[in-house]
Amino acid sequence: MSEVHTPSGGPAAPLNTGVAHNARVWNYWVGGKDNYEVDQRVGEHVAGMFPLIREIARADRWFLGRAVRFLAEERGVRQFLDIGTGLPTADNTHEIAQRVAPDSRIVYVDNDPIVLMHARTLLTGTPAGVTDYVDADVHDPDAILRRAAGTLDFTRPVAVMMLGILNFVLDVEAARDIVRRVMAAVPSGSFLVLTHPTHDSEVGGEGQIPAMRFWNENATPPITARSGEEISAFFDGLQLLEPGLVSCSRWRPEPGAPAVVPQYGGVAVKP
After folding, report:
1. pTM of the model
2. What is the DSSP letter of 254?
3. What is the crossing angle of helices 93-100 and 53-74, to 10°?
4. pLDDT per residue over 19-54, tens digit each?
5. 56, 57, 140, 268: most buried, per Cβ within 10 A?
């Protein structure tokens, strides 16, 4: 029988359906059903201000699929720590990894109650693998690592997934410290997979600034965009794989991939 664990950690915060929440609005943008009227209303307003947001959401999702397949197929990764997983949709990290290698072990981390509620019922793994869920905040990497150690073997390589999560850590030094602490806990041969929104004009990011200002006044949690230089610094001490830090839609793109979006993505290995 597949090992699918219930979320570990303390009790989740109460579900607030009166304020738009990123996990649910993102779900709305990618065509999901796990959202409320307030999420749809704010999502539509943001999309009206910044029409590229739906393309960003889809491109980020497709980047996840390509990165997980690449690491599982070409680099032999069998352990994934997905921090800030969001609401489950089609082709989640464990589904892609376990399709390649049924014995893959995946730990999801999130602290939104609706995400954890769906994690209990929607995410199932293969009989040979393990899928676990940790109720923890990205701002507390020590708690994430402590709880993930119940499922993952930190003496073997781990792919750390941080897709669209560090943009909710508003202080850039705090965000860099989180990455350093997590990557210090995994061995050589581990990977960091990261996406982050940018305001860089060369990839069309200047429109994110007013849209994010509206978001921060009307939704939760607050968000920030960063320059490519700031995002690149998250990979300090790691070796970026080709094609480097690029628009996530252009990272090892497949035929029919969307055009450039103002969301950088990259995959790096720990030497």
Report:
1. 0.90
2. P
3. 30
4. 998 888 988 998 888 889 999 999 999 999 999 999
5. 56
